Amino acid sequence: MNFANFPHPITGEHFALCEASRAKMQLETLGFIPTSKDIAQTVSLDTTTRGNKNGNGGGGGGGVLETLSQSMEQLYEDRYAKLAQETIQRKVRARDLTDRALSACEAFPKGTRVVVFGSSANGFGSPHSDLDMCIQLPPSSSLVDKEDVNGSASMGKLAEILEQTGMVDVNTDRLTARIPVVKFNCPIKSEDGNDTVLQLIECDVSMQNPLACINTALLRTYSGILPEVRILAAIVKRWAKARNINDPSEHTLSSYGYIIMLLYFLTTHKATDQGGIVNVQDKDSASSSSLSQRGQGQRRDGEEIAACTLIPNLQWMDPAWLQTPPGTPFKELDAKPSNQYSTMVHPSEPSYTVNTYFNPLNDEATTTALQNHLHHTNTNTANKKPTNNQKQQKRNTPPVGILLASFFRYYAYEFDYKRHIVSLNATCRYGPIDRESKAETDGWKLYGQALCVEDPFESFYDVAHVLKPIHFQRTRREFALAYAKICDTVVRGGVKVDGDDVTVKGDLLDQICEEVCNKDS
Questions:
Q1: Predicted model pTM
Q2: Does the residue 51 lie in any domain?
């Protein structure tokens, strides 16, 4: 359209004024200028502006993301990987001491043991994670006290023995909970005989919790697929804690909730040949009026799920796919197996049956086969004989810096909170699960924007139910702020603070994970 023909011509200056006015309003309202542009487009814009065609080094966008990736990997290595072995050894000692106390408690039958679950066992924990344990009775056994239905009385007796054996700060306030829990601190002493306490391990032990153990096995399998998964999880948890959006007691999301959100992102997105990351569910498959029982859209053609996502959904991946040559189109199960090995009655809801199926990747050969598939490039030569170069072509996993930026952008701007829920039970074939379906089947929130996160096995449970609207909006704002910091650093080498361009001091990762200031102090 030729704006010059109008009596009051519109020029580029007018658009610039509008953009400047909007930016000023965003700074006054939000404290930062949001950007929803894809990170690949941002890097492309930056490298074009700087004349850096390769996008590497020279301070360009590629260099910023490369540095961010290196910082993430280094932080994980220094604060998680290096400390992991020593922490694991101490937590093993804490578990052994708890198991020794359990064996001295006559309230439990012979053969009862202590099992570790949660972040200390699922591969997504930190050296400072609590040690979560549960009592596992022998098969077909029951408590010595037959009238102790939920085990609270037996757990009370165990608490007494734990205190007698040297555990400190033993807390029995949660013995009346649905699943009785005893909390305590386990002193880990030096082995040189001088009784010096090296560390107090925060522990809690609960009555039988089989679903928690299965859930731990699922997450542990995910964490072992690629190192990038563990690095991303560590950084996301660090970011959420620093930004004060990681405390269920304050109506913000738990670490477990963020892990599910991260896995949902990784199992619904794939890398492109241009270096970007796209959502495989972007076909809007859930818009169909004829929804399936799970609230998903009509079945999509095989071509639309030909390429595997960043990591496969272990609850839907067809095991036979792993036996095929790398590059074979990804294949999902038509339905989860439902038999005595994959289903169980819910431990506290007898009327509810849980399907606990997932592909456990039990051996190294299976894991290697999956990794070979994930690193293979789809050359789209189904009707052509591949050349030697095509046979040797590999798709490298995108750098963790790009993955982190895309994760922030997805939950800041792309995910449809009004219509869909975060769920690992969603498939590439049928697309996302509708909130409307969850409202009908499980009474979940329907109207307004809200984050809903479905537990992988207890599908009636909303992990994000603690979030109130005001906390949801603040959480989403933090996703947008983190992404804005990355994009602004890529383009300008600084972040917007109080309307001024400032040079980033220190590492970009430190800026993303900057602790929230207490305005009251």
A1: 0.84
A2: no
Helix pair angle (227-242, 61-76), 10° resolution: 90
CA distance 174 to 337: 36
Q: Which of 142, 175, 209 is the last residue of a domain?
A: 209
H helix or E strand, kind and range, residue 170:
strand 168-171
Digit-coded pLDDT (tens) for 487-509: 888 887 544 444 444 444 458 99
> Would residue 18 count as lying in a domain?
no
pLDDT tops 50 at residue 388: no
Non-local (6+) Cβ contacts of 512 within 8 A are 239, 404, 482, 485, 486
Q: Looking at the structure, do residues 410 and 508 belong to the same domain, yes or no?
A: yes
> Please, what is the angle between helix 210-223 and helix 227-242, to 10°?
110
- Domains of the chain: total: 2
Bridge partners of 449?
Answer: none
pLDDT tens, residue by residue, 216-236:
999 999 999 999 999 999 999
**456 in any annotated domain:** yes
pLDDT in tens, 70-119: 999 999 998 888 767 778 888 999 999 999 999 999 999 999 999 999 98
Same-domain pairing of 172 and 303? no
Cα–Cα distance, 194 to 197 (Å, whole number): 9
Say how far apart CA 349 and CA 442 lie, in whole Å.
14
> 217 to each of 116, 220, 221, how far by Cα in Å?
11, 5, 6
CATH of the domain at 122: 3.30.460.10
What does the alpha-carbon distance between residue 275 and residue 62 come to, in Å, rounded to a whole number?
11
DSSP state of 435: H
Provide the CB-side half-sphere exposure for 165 (13 A, CA). Answer: 21
C-alpha distances in Å from residue 518, one per residue of 155, 243, 244, 509: 40, 11, 10, 21
Residue 2 lies in a domain: no
Same domain, residue pair 156 and 244: no
Domain that holds residue 122: 87-209
Which residue is associated with the tokens 């930004």?
243
Of the three residues 140, 175, 209, the one that is the final residue of a domain is 209
